[in-house]
Every structure is written in C-alpha cells, then in structure tokens.
Design goal:
By secondary structure, the chain is α/β, with parallel strands linked by helices. The chain has one domain (23-131): Alpha-Beta Barrel (TIM Barrel). The protein has helices at residues 33-43, 69-77, 96-104, 106-123, and strands spanning 2-4, 14-16, 25-28, 49-56, 81-87, 89-90, 93-94, 127-131. Helix 1 (33-43) runs parallel beside helix 2 (69-77) and helix 3 (96-104) crosses helix 4. The protein is elongated. It comes from Neobacillus ginsengisoli. This is Spore germination protein YaaH.
C-alpha cells in the first residue's frame, strides 16, 4: 500500500506501508437492504472495519435506536468488522453540553457504559467508537 501525501508541502512524496499492517476503516449510514448490500460488497475488498453511523447518546444515558441488524449481518458475511458509532449528535448538531451532563454524572455515566456494553454484545458489534465535536 502506498500513501500519497496530498498537501502542497509534501507534493509528490509517498510512504510505503506493508498492506496487511494497516487497518482500514470507513463509515456507513444504514439504508435500504439493496443499497447496504451493494455498498458493503463494493468496499469489502479494501477495508477492515465499517462504523455504523450514528447512535446518539440520550440525556439519561440510554442510546437511540437504529435499524442496523441487516447491515451488521451483511458486514459479518463479508468478513468486515462492524463498529457502533456512538455520538453526542442532537437535532441541532453536536452537543458538548450533552457529553458533559452524561459523563459528569456517575450514575448516568455508568448507565451509558452498561448500555454500550449491552449494545455491542447483543447486536454482534466488534466494538464501538465515538464521534463528537468538542
């Protein structure tokens, strides 16, 4: 694998990486079963992980719902690792205040951690990652 540096300061330079030593990650938002299948099959040869975007946290430490089972199944069938993308995204944008409220309360923080753990285990995710704007 060759990584080309695209900034004007590094034009024309490249870095050689052994291909199988680089983890490749991308993100997907669930769509129709047909679109999910097509997209996953098209990227499966070139990525390792696919973050399923988005599952916002709620003020009480719970997680929003997302119809992701079909997508997780397709990812697993194509030997890709599904990641749950946990966000502080609200209808008005990213909310640092929500993050502070949830993580600032030991009770709500523990509830959130337990809910993330249950999500990963019950939905067959490999893990989770976060997406937030501070």
């Amino acid at each position: 694998m060759v990584l080309y540096l695209c900034s004007p300061f590094h034009e024309g330079k490249h870095i050689d990486f052994p291909y199988d030593e680089v983890d490749r990650l991308s993100y997907i938002t669930p769509s129709t079963p047909e679109k999910n299948q097509l997209l996953v099959q098209s990227v499966a040869p070139i990525i390792d992980y696919l973050g399923i975007f988005k599952r916002p946290i709620l003020e009480d430490g719970s997680l929003s719902t997302l119809d992701d089972q079909q997508l997780i199944r397709i990812l697993r069938e194509n030997r890709l690792a599904p990641l749950a993308v946990i966000t502080n995204l609200t209808p008005t944008g990213f909310s640092p205040e929500l993050t502070k409220r949830v993580l600032g309360s030991p009770e709500i923080r523990e509830r959130l951690i337990n809910n993330i753990y249950k999500l990963v285990k019950t939905k067959n995710y490999i893990s989770c990652c976060s997406s937030e704007n501070k």
